[in-house]
Every structure is written in structure tokens, then in C-alpha cells.
Specification:
Elements: H1 3-25, H2 28-36, H3 39-56, H4 58-62, H5 67-87, H6 91-96, H7 100-107, H8 109-112, H9 114-123, H10 126-139, H11 143-151, H12 153-174, H13 187-196, H14 198-209, H15 231-242, H16 245-263, H17 270-273
Length: 291
């Protein structure tokens, strides 16, 4: 076992222990609420199990032999796994599982390290996070860097960590999860922000689909009878067809929730919307009365 495997495995085990400890520390009413809506715990557990399968199963080794499997691993790390992780809003429970001194240190961070805290607020705002997510995803598709991934396992592990880390920050804003260090994006902005996540993924698939020559050199190749299909073309099709599906569906669900909320708003009384000023066209003002 490499030091990267030991470190990542320790982080996953620690996350499980902190979550269980934080859940036990919750007030009885909050615990009953969590049990009444077990999807939060289910999505957290599903995210960790899927992450362990992606990083420690034979899928990780096959990702350095077949390009399309490497593509699948990347897509899971930037879309489905962080979406499941953040949809359960687990960070408050994980924080509650920390030792008391660590919790106090986090709460006092704005006072003890104001410059670092302000810098973190700027870097973790929606626009820089999206830019960092796009740059990280595109960087690991560079041909020369991809060759390093195939040659050194630690580079592959570092790729997984950076992809997952930037994606978690991105989904943090999409799902408006805690801690709320920034004001939540307006509903329609969140819809667009979620849909925007599919853009860098789709562009990679689009470029590879229209590239006739082999861009990436992986040691193993697939051969399907009666089909003019290569490892690269299968990976490109995978990115193009299912690459942005999690982002797109999340945008659709956010739009549905917004429309549902608008539909459930109480109607304004007729005395409000039928006044003379409200009936004027935008940009027009009521004409002065002539004497």
C-alpha cells in the first residue's frame, strides 16, 4: 500500500467516524429529524462507498490501461460523487464530530487569522470556484500531463484528489450547502450555475469526437467486431453523452423547485395589482393632471 492509499483511506475512515460521532452529538430532536429523512445519511454513505470503489477497486488500475475507464473515473469524481456528498449537507455533522478544541478553532478563525479568512472568502466565492473547477478538469486532459498520470501512480492519486476537491467546492455552491460563508445564489442563478458545470465536460467530449488521430496513448486497446470504435472514440462518446448529465438534471430539479415555490406563493389582492400605477407600462409615469 502506497502512502497515498494510506492517506486517502485514513481520510475516508476518519470521515465516517466523525459523521457517526457528530450524529450522536446532535440534539434528540435533530436526530429524529435525520431519521425521519434518512436520505441525507444515505447519500453521504453512498458517496463514500462510491468514492472508495473508484479509488481502491480494480477500476483505479484499469483507468491507467483504458482511456474510456479513465474518463468514467473522472466523471464520477467531478459529478456524481460530490453531488451525493453535498446533497446530504454533511459538513455541520462532520464539524460536530470534531474535538471541542478543533471546533472552537474553526469558530474563532475569522478573529485569529482575519487575512487568511478574507482570502479564503474571496477564493471560495462562486466565480473563482467555477474557474478553478474548469482549469483543473481541463489541465488533467493535457496530453503531456496525462502521460505522467500513466507513468506514476502518485500523479494519478494527486489527479483524483484535485478533481474531487474542486468539484466538492463547486457543488457546495450549486446545492447551497452549509457552511453558508457566502450568500446563497438566487434561484435562477443557481440553475445557470449548475448547467454551466456541464460546459467544460461537454467541450472535452466534443473535441475528442471530431479528432480522427489518436491523442492519448494508453497501453490497452478495445476491439469491437463490426464497429469502427476505438478506445478514444468510446471515451469521447462517454464524455459527450453522459458527461454533463448530473449537472443538467440538477439544473432541471432546481428549476422545478423554483417554479413550485413561485406557484405556491400567495396571490396579491386585486387592490394591489389593479391600481392605476401598477397598470402602467414599464418606463411610463402617470401624466400630470391638467388644470
Amino acid at each position: 500500500m502506497s502512502i497515498w492509499d494510506f492517506g486517502i483511506g485514513s481520510v475516508l475512515v476518519t470521515a465516517v467516524l466523525l459523521y457517526l460521532r457528530g450524529w450522536r452529538r446532535q440534539p434528540a430532536e435533530d436526530r429524529r429529524t435525520l431519521l425521519a429523512s434518512p436520505w441525507r445519511m444515505i447519500t453521504f454513505a453512498a458517496a463514500l462507498l462510491l468514492l472508495a470503489a473508484v479509488l481502491f477497486s480494480p477500476l483505479h488500475g484499469l483507468a491507467t490501461r483504458y482511456f474510456y475507464i479513465h474518463v468514467l473515473q473522472r466523471l464520477l469524481l467531478v459529478s456524481l460523487i460530490p453531488c451525493l456528498f453535498m446533497s446530504g449537507n454533511p459538513l455541520p455533522i462532520l464539524q460536530a464530530g470534531l474535538p471541542t478544541k478543533a471546533q472552537n478553532w474553526l469558530w474563532q478563525l475569522p478573529q485569529t487569522a482575519p487575512r487568511f479568512y478574507k482570502l479564503w472568502l474571496r477564493l471560495s466565492s462562486p466565480l473563482p470556484v467555477w474557474f478553478l473547477f474548469v482549469c483543473t478538469f481541463w489541465l488533467w486532459h493535457d496530453v503531456q500531463i496525462d502521460r505522467l498520470v500513466l507513468q506514476a501512480d502518485w500523479v494519478h492519486r494527486f489527479e483524483n484528489v484535485t478533481l474531487m476537491g474542486t468539484a466538492v467546492c463547486y457543488w457546495w455552491h450549486i446545492l447551497a450547502a452549509s457552511p453558508r460563508l457566502h450568500p446563497a445564489l438566487p434561484p435562477l442563478w443557481r440553475v445557470g450555475y449548475a448547467a454551466l458545470g456541464a460546459t467544460p465536460v461537454k467541450l472535452v467530449g466534443l473535441v475528442l469526437m471530431f479528432t480522427s488521430t489518436a491523442v492519448y496513448q494508453y497501453p490497452a486497446e478495445i476491439q469491437l467486431y463490426n464497429l469502427n470504435l476505438t478506445d478514444q472514440s468510446l471515451g469521447a462518446a462517454l464524455v459527450w453523452v453522459v458527461g454533463g448529465i448530473v449537472f443538467t438534471w440538477t439544473a432541471v430539479l432546481l428549476m422545478r423547485d423554483w417554479l413550485k415555490g413561485e406557484d405556491e406563493k400567495p396571490q396579491l389582492p386585486e387592490s394591489v395589482w389593479s391600481s392605476a400605477e401598477m397598470m402602467l407600462a414599464p418606463g411610463f409615469s402617470k401624466s400630470p393632471t391638467s388644470k
